[in-house]
Every structure is written in C-alpha cells, then in structure tokens.
Design a protein that fits this description.
There is one protein chain. By secondary structure, the protein is α+β, with helices and mostly antiparallel strands. Helices cover 29% and strands 34% of the residues. It has a seven-stranded mixed sheet with strand order 1-2-3-4-5-7-6. A hairpin with a 4-residue loop joins strand 3 and strand 4.
Length: 150
C-alpha cells in the first residue's frame, strides 16, 4: 500500500467512501469535502493499493501551532489492516514538519473503537461537545502534543 497526496480526480471516490463510512448527518457532502481539501493550509493523503483507494485523511492547519484532523475514512474491507495508522502517521509527520504543537480531532461519543485507536496513538479526551454532528450525536474532542520535526 502507498500513501500519496490527493488528486482532483479522487474527489468522487472520497465522497463515496465518506458516505459509506458515516451515517447521514455525520458524513460530509461532496461540496464540504471539496472545501476541506482546498482550504488554505489543508493537506489530504490517500491510502491506495493498486487502483483501489483504501482510505483517506484530511487535515488542516488551524493556527500557527494547531492542526486539525478533519476526517479519516477507511473503507470497511481495509479496516484493522494498518490503513488508518499509515494515514495518521502521514498527518502526524506533516504536523511535526510544519512545527505544529498540537493536533486535534473529533470523534463520535459512541465510537469506542475510534477512541481506542486514537488513545493508542496518545490522543487524550479534551472536551465533550453535545449535539456536535448534524444528527444530534455528541463528540469527543481528542488532542495530542506533536513532537517537532524542526
């Protein structure tokens, strides 16, 4: 599997993956995904095996020292095979290279598997936000101190 940067031709596939990974009210519209990808300070990584996209991650620089993982999506058949870890490695390396001090993300309150995945990568729960997602689901904000690559 290779991790590569986003290409505009990926957009439709990323939208379809996001729709499959998350329920309505949590998943993003194609326009929202496009906006996150094209936002200034944003980076998108694609996990690909052959011609198949196994997952993707969108991250953005929120300030001089803070980065945000907007979404990480892994195709169901590729879960628990290292795809999420490889994507997180790419985002965390980018954050270190950029001199960011903190990386944060949101995850659904009931998504215990995701919370365990992030906790294993040294993310800690910082704040619970009620009604965070469009479907009314609460989210945990989780964050991690980034070791500088500079």
């Amino acid at each position: 599997m290779q991790i590569r940067t986003y290409r505009p031709s990926d957009l439709q596939t990323l939208y379809e993956i996001d729709q499959a990974c998350f329920p309505p009210g949590v998943s993003y519209s194609k326009r929202e995904i496009w906006h996150f990808i094209n936002r200034r300070g944003s980076r998108t990584w694609i996990a690909q095996e052959g011609n198949e996209i196994a997952g993707f991650l969108i991250a953005s620089r929120e300030s001089k020292e803070v980065g945000h993982i907007v979404t990480i999506d892994v195709v169901e058949g590729w879960r628990r095979r290292g795809v999420g870890g490889a994507l997180m490695d790419a985002a965390e390396a980018w954050a270190a290279e950029e001199g960011l001090r903190v990386l944060f993300l949101e995850t659904a309150e009931e998504n215990i598997a995701a919370q365990r995945f992030y906790a294993a990568r040294n993310y800690v729960k910082l704040e619970k936000i009620e009604n965070y997602y469009g479907d009314g689901t609460a989210a945990w904000v989780m964050g991690k101190t980034v070791k500088s690559g500079r």
